[in-house]
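ok here's NTF2-related export protein, seq below lol
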Amino acid sequence: MSTTTDKRTNVDLSGQSGVEFSKLFYETMDKKRHLVSNLYLDDASLIWNGNPYVGKENISKFFETLPVSTTDIRSVDAQPIADNFVQGRTTVLVSVSGIVKFSGKSSTLYSESFLLTAQQGANGNVWKIVSDCFRFHETLS
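and the structure came out like this:
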């Protein structure tokens, strides 16, 4: 297989993984919030509208403070990160945008970027979040 074919396969697999992970993440966030921290590495970081949370436990505590949500994913893009930047670990950058509605609030556009790394799990490799950056889109007036 040529290097070009290998890169194309990597991009295709990253795209598929990004879509599957995004569906899992937002379904867990909306319906099983108490389990969402299981998708993060122990030392992961979350930036939520400019506010930092470091460590799986702190991220979990923050998510518990949020109202019930309903998320509508509108777009997902995922790209593999070159091995030489991540010490050969399988890593993907996933960018998501959509609409989220928190209970008692109006619907809001958002974007979120996940840096994922493959980790060995009981049933093979699983994606874990290394870093997560969430931002509401504010309307300019």
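fwiw The chain has a mean pLDDT of 89. kinda neat tbh
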